Amino acid sequence: MSSREELAKKFLVRKLRPIEIGEKSISQLLDSMAMTGFQGRRLGEVVKVWETACRTENTVIFLGLAGSLSTTGQSEIVKFLIRNRFIDVLVSTGANITEDLVEALGANYYMGEPNLDDSELFKAGIYRFHDVLVRDVDYFKMEKMLADFMAQLDRTKVYSSAKFLNQLGAWLDGKGVNGILTEAWRSGVPVFSPALVDSGMGVAYLLNKYRHGEGFKLLIDHFADYELIVKIKAKFADSAAIFIGGGVPKDFIQLAAVAVDVLLSGDLSKYRPHRFAAQITTDSPHWGGLSGATLDEAKSWGKESPDSMTVQCFCDATIGLPLVAHALYEKLGRRKDPPDLSWVFKEG
């Protein structure tokens, strides 16, 4: 055999398999897609990474949720992932865990178009999220409710966002408001939001300043958040980092992998990479930003290791997340023996 043929054998290992049309479940379709090419293959591989993490013992699964996906009909999927413990820790933008409350309070988001006259929408009291619409009065109702929650807290305390959001989930449950945070509280899943004020939470805080005067204070300690998520990472042999979008949630989870030994021994040179990592994003790596940075680049930081099971799919989350979540449901139903993180709420 020639050296050329020997070299070719090194690369030509896995045969591509065309997708055959016929009756298939969503999980079967994604399994088939995983044997094709381009982003279809990557989406199928996201399922494989997530499923493997769910089946691996002593593994904590982090989900980073960026953007404003709750406005696009994704919040029920997130609640499903929490309820069936396909995730153990949620790190979210403030938007995702507040804007779902608009629907939880009985209002609606509406289908619109991106080319509507925004000046006319403003006159009509309508906010636009690309092709999604909502009445401003319904958004105000959500912000006022968050202000009511803040006002009844013991404000002599300093809260991590995890403790603050856990208490909000309990408060929402008591009022029969079934949001993402409500489901997280019921399921014992910690929720972190390291950019909490970048949402209706900021308006709610200012509303309380107006209502109660300059004496109103509420302190959220994001350094305590970081220490707490590092402690969670430290307690498990393995971890998985699943990213829907990028942004602050992505790097907050990634940095936990490089800080465990800093916390335990002060050693800056040791890392505990995530064993599993998957990302669905529309951000491109060539712009240099973190949101689109490849998981291979993350290996240079020790966030993932050379032998980590990783995949990055460049796809709209509103396409990828519903398909992946349905595939996990078909394959696993509910994750068996998820870790108990009840201690987090005592520390956080």
Summarize the structure.
With 348 residues, the chain is an alpha/beta fold. It contains 15 helices and eleven strands. It has one domain (24-101, 157-197, 218-347): 3-Layer(aba) Sandwich (Deoxyhypusine Synthase), CATH 3.40.910.
Task: Using brief descriptors, characterize the structure shown.
47% helix, alpha/beta, Deoxyhypusine Synthase, six-stranded parallel beta sheet, 348 residues
How does this model look, in words?
The protein is globular. Helix content is 47%, strand content 15%. By secondary structure, the protein is an alpha/beta fold. It starts with a helix and ends with a helix. The longest helix has 19 residues. It is built from 15 helices and 11 strands. The strands form 3 sheets. It has a 6-stranded parallel β-sheet, with helices on both faces. The chain has a single domain, classed as Deoxyhypusine Synthase (3-Layer(aba) Sandwich).
Shape call:
globular
Q: For the record, give the distance between the C-alpha atoms at the N and C termini, rounded to a whole number.
A: 64 Å
Low-confidence stretches: none
| Strand portion | 15-25%
Helix content: 40-55%
Mean pLDDT over the residues? 96
**Domain unit count:** 1
Write the H/E string, N to C: HHHEHEHEHEEHEHHEHEHEHEHEHH
Task: Give a short account of the largest sheet.
Answer: 6 strands, parallel
CATH topology: Deoxyhypusine Synthase
Number of helices: 15
